[in-house]
Amino acid sequence: MFKHRHETGSGRASLYDEITTKIISELDAGRLPWVQPWGTAAVKAPLAMPRNAATGRQYSGINVLILWGAVISHGYSGQSWLTFRQALALGGNVRKGEHGTTVVYADRFVPDDEKKRARETGEDAAAIPFLKRFTVFNSAQCANLPEDVAIVAPPPPPGSIEPQVEALIKASGIDFRIGGDRAFYVPAGDYVQVPPPQAFFEPINWHRTALHECSHASGAPHRLNRDLSGSFGSKKYAFEELVALSGQSAPSATLQ
Fold first, then answer.
1. What are the distances in angstroms from CA 239 to CA 47, 216, 219, 243, 245?
2. Dist CA 14 CA 9 (whole Å)
3. Each residue of 160-197: pLDDT tens digit?
4. Which of 47, 67, 109, 236 is the most core-located residue (most Cβ within 10 A)?
5. Beta pairing class for 128-138 and 101-109
6. C-alpha separations of 135 from 43, 100, 102, 104, 187 in Å
7. Is 82 exposed, middle or buried (0-12, 13-18, 19+ CB in 10 A)?
8. Are both 79 and 135 inside the same structural domain?
């Protein structure tokens, strides 16, 4: 599923175009992949070079911009990355529903026929440039990694989450994650993610947001089995939003 492949000729050009388009889209959105967004709660990762968590090697070239951009976009708490197989080899795994980031490896190789021709003619062998495309995952997207590899997001400040709400979320059994700069529920991965409490101007709004997304998670097939297939703007989507709003109103009212 997560494979790499050689890219030559038109394939290499296509990959260059893909990466260029990605960086331009980040610029158009006002996100500069090489600038550390200090003072925001979106990113907790230190300003450092991205590295492979399994080998310890630092990424270089265009991969630095790609991985910095991914950290900023998703709010990861570290600069360590792994392939799917590397995570398994370390005894961990990529969490269900996570999407990887594409990086590239550039090098040259000399075909056996070219080596033979060079020996026969005494000429220098001509090397052929190639690109490999890899899918990597941030350590924050993985579970069960060794402690020296796992990235643990900084916990919210003491007292920032109401004990009753924290107990309710824990009792729900929902995979609840804190981090990034967006709040959402992912049906395919069955997990909720919300920004950290310190990112909100008012504490009450973190609690409202957390309970709202948990209300969406209650509609999973193995819970209340609601229809969560509605796209944004559709009647199904609007109905699900009404359900989530009514589901959060009573618990959040106790925090006023």
1. 43, 11, 12, 6, 10
2. 9
3. 899 999 999 999 999 999 876 678 898 988 999 888 88
4. 67
5. antiparallel
6. 21, 6, 5, 9, 22
7. buried
8. yes
Is residue 153 situated within a structural domain? no
Identify which of 13, 52, 46 has the alpha carbon closest to the alpha carbon of residue 134.
52
Token pair recorded at residue 14 = 């296509």
Helix, strand, coil % in the chain, rounded to nearest 5: 40, 15, 45
Residue 148 lies in a domain: no
Whether residue 183 contacts residue 201, with contact meaning beta carbons closer than 8 Å, is answered with no
Residue of 63, 69, 67 lying closest to 27 (CA atoms): 69
- Please give the full DSSP string across 205-237, using - where no structure is assigned: HHHHHHHHHHHHHTTSTTTT-----PPTTSHHH
Where is the domain boundary, 143, 178, 198? 143
- Range of 11's domain? 6-143
Which residues are CB-neighbours of 9 under 8 A, at least 6 positions away? none
Structural domain includes residue 150: no
**Contact assessment for residue 59 and residue 49, using Cβ atoms and an 8 Å cutoff:** yes
pLDDT tens digits, 4-61 = 444 444 555 576 677 777 777 766 665 555 454 333 444 455 557 899 998 889 998 8
Q: How many domains does the chain have?
A: 2
Minimal CA–CA distance to 84: which of 138, 132, 45?
A: 138
Contact 96, 153 (CB under 8 A): no
Say if residues 255 and 204 touch (Cβ distance below 8 Å): yes
Spatial distance between the Cα atoms of 170 and 2, rounded to a whole number of angstroms:
33
